[in-house]
Amino acid sequence: MERKKIVFKNYIFAALSINILTIVGVIAIQKFLPPEVPLFYGLPEGEGQLAPRLLLIVPSFASLIILTVNSILSSFIEDEFVRKALVLAGIGTTFFAVITTVKIALLVGSF
After folding, report:
1. Confidence class of residue 18 from pLDDT cuts 50, 70 and 90?
2. For residue 51, what are the β-bridge partners?
3. How distant, in Å, are the alpha carbons of 56, 68, 93 from that of 83?
4. Nearest to 91 by CA among 68, 61, 59, 57
5. What is the DSSP string of 49-94?
6. Has this prediction a pTM greater than 0.85?
7. What percent of the chain has pLDDT over 90?
8. Domain limits of the chain?
9. φ, ψ dihedrals at 32, nearest 5°
10. How far is the C-alpha of 99 from the C-alpha of 28, rounded, in Å?
11. What is the dihedral of CA 4, 59, 57, 98, to 10 degrees?
12. Is the pLDDT confidence value at 66 over 80?
């Protein structure tokens, strides 16, 4: 099995950069956030939704892992459509992770 060229290389680089900037941004705004933030919206209302403010990096970190794994997998797949779908799915996770992080920070932060 030979390795193929990675598709959408510039978009992958941009998404990686955005994830890293989001992680650094969350660390930088720690003093403006309360000790606990509502991160786990899927859980019932109450204390279960709350997490320490540093865990606000989790969405971007998970997106970073998904983007990296999908990009590596796409270099080993033959079908062009599947390769592009994997990369675009990784880029989509970046979009949603950044939106989630920014909305939570704006909701509870005191800027």
Report:
1. very high
2. 37
3. 30, 13, 16
4. 68
5. GEEEGGGGGHHHHHHHHHHHHHHHHHTT---HHHHHHHHHHHHHHH
6. yes
7. 81
8. 9-108
9. -95, -5
10. 17
11. 80
12. yes
Look at residue 38 and give its three-state secondary structure. strand
Predicted pLDDT at 2: 61
How far apart CA 38 and CA 41 sit, in angstroms, is 7
CB 38 within 8 A of CB 93: no
pLDDT at 59: 96
Residue with more model confidence, 44 or 66:
66
Coil vs helix vs strand at 36? strand
CA–CA distance, 3 with 34 (Å, rounded to integer): 47
Non-local CB neighbours of 92 within 8 Å, separated by 6+ positions: none
CB atoms within 10 A of CB 80: 11
